[in-house]
Amino acid sequence: MKRLRWLSVTAAAVLALTAAGCSSSGSSSSSTPSSGSTTAAASSSVFGTPKKATGSPYVFGMINDETGAVTFPEARQGSIAAVDYVNNYLDGINGHPIQIDACTGDGTPATAARCANQLVADHPMAILGAADVGAPASIPIYAHANLAYLGGIPFTPVPETATNSVQFWSVSVGDNAAAAVYAGKTLGVKSVALVYFSNAQGESILPQITPVFKAAGVTTVKDIPLSPTSPDPSPQAALVESSGVQLAYVDVPNGCGNVLKALKSDDVARWLNNLGGSAKTKANKHGFLSGALGAAVRKHQLTGNVCNGNRLSRHMAIGEKAAFTRNVHFDFNRFSPGCSR
After folding, report:
1. Around 162, how many Cα atoms within 13 Å sit in the side-chain half-sphere?
2. Distance CA 23, CA 40 (A)
3. Residue 184 maps to a domain
4. CB contact set of 208 (below 8 Å; sequence gap of 6+)
5. DSSP assignment, residue 311?
6. Is residue 250 part of a domain?
7. Are 52 and 87 in contact (CB under 8 A)?
8. H or E segment at 261?
9. Block means of pLDDT (10 residues each) for the chain, length 341 residues?
């Protein structure tokens, strides 16, 4: 039986819209500072000389995911900090203060669409991208209202390809492409099962990642759609197992935690029994999987590590030791952003 590897990746990162600083007083003094010294202190602030915007506000809409399985409160908080700085020290935009009209998302297309319609009804100047996993559902609504979508975290290719969207970096496209190349060229994988959400958001990744897999030497890519509302991905996991592929590539934001939960101790035992290679190689691979799942437990995406309780064969060649990959650090937020936060 062929060995099956699981690789769970989606694009994720932290919004870089923060503008923060800290000012502190010098040595303490019992005397009351004069108005002149207070002015001097203000002018020497790390922010510079205050220049407050006093005109009518320029309103920008924003959807930020702060409920559900994946949350990014720091994206909105960072944006507010940046806006406060611009409004109080940079005279806003031509004297007009910036105002953020925010709607809280949960990563689902339905909520993203609802929030987008709500924001459009408020007639903002444009939309500030933040952390909106459901952007494939919200961006077309902005486009219909002739609203630009500026920046944010492009979790899927949609923000990077939409005509009304302006992006400054790549997350989903770059990360997925890098993982596909690694699977084909470094791992030598020839067959892949691609698990994705069966909606516009999930399907948008197919024309992006499949050609990269093929160019990296993968000859077979089996598409396995998963409903974003499905509470149990066990049927999809079973399809992956029965397909005979060498690697399962899981690209389901907000849903890969459930995919991992579908992995049972018996699955790991069966995988171990069919692993090829030396005892050392088996120990290394088991250790990698156990480390990734252990990180998921620490992040509260899983309640337990299904690798625990699986015993490795102790029949090693003389002088051979199990040597786990050196300097491996499992940061589950990066290894599988769609399951984190």
Report:
1. 28
2. 13
3. no
4. 157, 172, 173, 176, 177
5. P
6. no
7. yes
8. helix 256-261
9. 45 30 34 47 72 96 88 92 96 96 92 97 96 92 97 85 89 80 88 85 81 94 86 80 81 67 66 67 72 74 70 41 32 37 31
Q: Are 17 and 79 in contact (CB under 8 A)?
A: yes
Query: Domain count of the chain?
Result: 2
- How far apart (Å, rounded) are the C-alpha atoms in residues 243 and 261? 20
Q: Which amino acid is at 15?
A: L
**Burial classification of residue 88, based on how many CB atoms lie within 10 Å of its CB (0-12 exposed, 13-18 middle, 19 or more buried):** middle
- The parent domain of residue 309 ranges over 275-333
Domain assignment of residue 125, yes or no: yes
CA 101 to chain centre: 23
CA 30, 33, 37, 41 torsion-angle sign: positive
Helix (H) or strand (E) holding 179: helix 172-181
Which tokens is 326 given?
Answer: 């050196």
Sheet holding 98-105, edge to edge: 98-105, 58-65, 126-128, 149-150, 165-166
Q: How far apart are the first and last CA of the chain?
A: 36
Q: What does the block give as tokens for 197?
A: 């959400």
Map residue 162 onto helix, strand or coil: coil
The predicted model scores a pTM of 0.56
The token pair at 18 is 């923060």
